[in-house]
Structures are given as structure tokens and as C-alpha cells.
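Page 42, continued from yesterday. The earlier attempt failed because a stray header line got pasted into the input along with the sequence. Redoing it now with the clean sequence only.
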Amino acid sequence: MSDIAKQLLARGSEGEDALLKLMDHRNAVVRMKAAAACLDLSRDRAVNVLADICDLRAGKVSMDAMHALLFAGEFDMKTGPKRRPV
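This time it went through. C-alpha cells are written below.
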């Protein structure tokens, strides 16, 4: 899935638009991977999508979302995800 995100980003604005739309996908894994890849494109929205997935407490996908937020500096171990205003 990371390779797919890289290929989409390499296609310019159309690829970026497609990747941004994947943050609304019904599958949490797809949403999480898309949001992690979109942190540089749409940081506020991506952070909130990842925070929502953390809140699901859905095993590996929630842990992966937390790790993406930690790596981006958007997760506090005491308080959790740092949500962005909508």
C-alpha cells in the first residue's frame, strides 16, 4: 500500500486528489495508510483521520495509526492524539 501511495503522489495533482479521497474509504487500513501518506498534503485532516482510527481501538490498524502520529510528532503518550481543529 505504501508503494501505491508513492505511485499516486508521483502522478501530480490527480494522484494527490485520489490519495486524499482514500482517507474517506470504508476500510480502516486503507484510510490509515492514505492518511499517513497525506501528512504532508493535508496535515490537519490526516492527523484527525489517524486520531479517529486510534480511537477505534481496532488492534494493529489503531497501533499503526498511533505510530504514524508518533512519527509525525502528533501523539502524546499521556494524552493521546493531538487533534486538529476542523
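Notes: The beta strands are 75-76, 80-81.
Reminder to self: strip header lines before submitting.
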